[in-house]
Amino acid sequence: MNSAASRPTPEQAGPGRERPGARLRLDLYNNSDFDRGASRLKEALWVLCKCVFFLNPFPWASSLRVGLLRLFGARIGVGVVIRSGVNITFPWRFTAGDEVWIGEEVYILSLAPVTLGSHVCLSQRAFLCTGSHAWRRETFDLQTGAIEVEDSVWIAAQAFIGPGTRIGSNSVIGAGAVVMKTVPNNCLAAGNPAVVRVKD
Predict the structure, then answer these.
(1) How far is 161 from 55, CA to CA, in rounded Å?
(2) pLDDT in tens, the chain (200 residues)
(3) Terminus-to-terminus CA distance in the chain, angstroms?
(4) What is the CATH superfamily name and number for domain 37-198?
């Protein structure tokens, strides 16, 4: 049987369904049904606050940044250190335990919940990304997935943690690693794509 004959026509597939060889059509992209989790006013106030107290290189005290995050709905424990340049998209979808360190220019794209356990270190420019797109669909639909980082994890500089991943406790993510699937407890993940092995 001719495989091409079994493929749906564009009319049968519809704009939001996967089609082999579908071309990206950004004019069809629509994320109007995405739940941002807060009002536009609250989001605008957060952006203003973030520009002044987070993205600004001035060394504001971590306690001030933590207090502002809590004010906007984040759940944060004690002893948390937040350096300058940290970019958290939606603080109302961010949770961190005790004694968490977040280094300069860490980016937390919290379109879905991001949860950090206690004693977690996010080094400079680490990127926790909860969003992606359905690239097989011409409509390029937004896809989101929560990220969970358990206790005593180090995510080294410029590592990328993809949507829907869990980093098990006492694990290490190497510098520049690209992690797109769950990392078990007591493991080291390094490389692109990350190769996971039990810690020595």
Answers:
(1) 21
(2) 444 444 333 344 444 566 666 788 888 888 888 889 899 999 999 999 999 999 999 999 999 999 999 999 999 999 999 999 999 999 999 999 999 999 999 999 999 999 999 999 999 999 999 998 888 888 888 889 999 999 999 999 999 999 999 999 999 999 999 999 999 999 999 999 999 999 87
(3) 53
(4) Hexapeptide repeat proteins (2.160.10.10)
- Quick check: 182 and 149 in contact, CB under 8 A? no
Q: Where are the beta strands (DSSP E) in the chain?
A: 75-76, 81-82, 87-88, 94-96, 101-102, 107-109, 114-116, 121-122, 127-129, 131-133, 142-144, 147-149, 154-155, 160-161, 166-167, 172-173, 178-179, 187-190, 195-198
Which residue is associated with the tokens 């995405």? 34
Closest by alpha carbon to 179, among 168, 197, 167? 167
Q: Does the predicted model carry a pTM greater than 0.85?
A: yes
Domain ranges (residues) in the chain: 37-198
What number of other Cβ atoms are within 10 A of residue 114's Cβ? Answer: 25
CB 159 within 8 A of CB 176: yes
> Residue 57's closest CA among 83, 32, 28, 38?
83
